[in-house]
Amino acid sequence: MLNLTGPAAGAAVVGCCCQMVGFAVQSFKANGIGGLMAQGIGTSMIQMPNIIRNPMIWIPTLVTSALLGPLATTILPLECTAVAAGMGTCGFVGPIGTFMAMSGAGYASSAIWLHLFLLEFILPAALAAGLNQVCLRAGLYKNCDMKLDLAGEDQVGENVAENA
Q1: Radius of gyration, CA atoms only, the chain
Q2: pTM for this structure?
Q3: How far is residue 38's CA from residue 44's CA, in Å, rounded to a whole number?
Q4: Cα→Cα distances 99→20, 145, 151, Å
């Protein structure tokens, strides 16, 4: 929508990846591998009901985004296409857009892969996991505050009980 390109698009894709990968890692104890996949390569927006209930669960991913966005425009420059900038890791559209933009800009393949994996997967996971532990120890929220209602599993059980 904003037609971001170059480093601005790189910072945008990193921010989105921080949300998706961050929530996937942060809520792994509550949601297991299904939640990890749903948020990591699906969308972190499925956490929105939980964010509304307890906005504090958003702290690790927001801080991670705030730290890594500037890093993506300075020390580890990252570029992305306008279309992929807001997609994060959803269906790997963000990483594909990053590879396309940086290849077109003449970056070496090794630099592309290093920057892509560090800024879109490894650092978001590590920082969000570490900040999550700090927030849990501070009592800002509990792991169960990030439990997802995947496929309406709570409602399905209630409907079966009502119809029996």
Answers
A1: 17
A2: 0.87
A3: 8
A4: 19, 35, 33
